[in-house]
Amino acid sequence: MKPKLAFPIPVTPEFNPGDLPENITKFLDLRYACDSGEQVLDLYLPEEKDRREGKKFPLILYIHEGAFAFGSKRDKRAETLFEALKRGYAIASVDYRKSGEVTWPAPLYDIKTAVRFLRAHAERYALDEKKFAVWGMSAGAYYGSMAAVTNGLPGFEDPETGFGRFDSSIQAAVDLCGACSGFHLLDEMIRENGGENPTHDREDSPESILMGGPLQEIRELCRLAAPVTYVRETVPPFFIFHCIGDPVVPVQQSEKFAGALRQSVGEEKVRLVLKEGAGDHGKPDYNTREIVEEALDFLDEVFCVQKEADALPA
């Protein structure tokens, strides 16, 4: 059942995998757990010639947006990531249980189970299990960031959902406008920016429904659900992008998160990109080719991926 939210959420159109170029190998609707019909993912691999050469592919796990309540692994934003296939990345786009079905932290368990599933099948799909990245926007950025900062913390995954003996760690993260410094601070930050009548604290907000109650009544739970709470020296590198005037997820969420990351892991492992302008939260400013390529360049650096043009002999 889809929850009734405080404000309407535009649904991102989906793409049809059948319309993709024939040279993209697709494995669709791979089931990584059996508790819900939502627990499936699609996997896309680079060209066959690369696989014949015995290469192992770094993986990008795309986590879709949708206010924690909606969305699909085939939303159009996932399609923009296919540029990464040309750079030798595999792409997995994951569905997860929504807030109309479960509350936090169950969707995070799903993300980590999907990672374990992919590691369990790394040899079959020629995945480099030492180079797994998460990539998400808005709700997807939140889940991806939580997965990355809680590497090795057993309280944030449920091995009983499957593949419990495999590792769920993440080696890099791309966070596009995620609320990573605390849901309970969203309205306060919006007011600091001159916003009027923010709605995150309402009991029917996306965050309140996910967390199981009005945010100001469960502030400590919100703190425990915030990625910034778990920043430490062992967290992986982060690429963070935010529009300065974002009216839904205020830019302070990313500024605070990036500041904590830099203190723990160093400036060189954190790239914060802020864009001037209001920006319609997640659309379209967060999905330009420029931003996608800048984030991919960051992952190339982290994973020491050599672009095809750079690999050619002089």
From TrEMBL:
Q: Which domain of life is it from?
A: Bacteria
What Pfam families does this protein's entry cite?
BD-FAE
The yes or no answer to whether the keyword DNA-binding is present is: no
Record-linked InterPro entries? AB_hydrolase_fold, BD-FAE-like_dom, GDXG_lipolytic_enzyme
GO MF annotations, alphabetized: hydrolase activity
Q: Which UniProt keywords apply?
A: Hydrolase
Coiled coil where?
none
Domain (BD-FAE-like) spans 41-261
Name the PANTHER family for this protein.
Answer: AB HYDROLASE SUPERFAMILY PROTEIN C4A8.06C, ALPHA_BETA HYDROLASE
- What is this protein identified as? Alpha/beta hydrolase
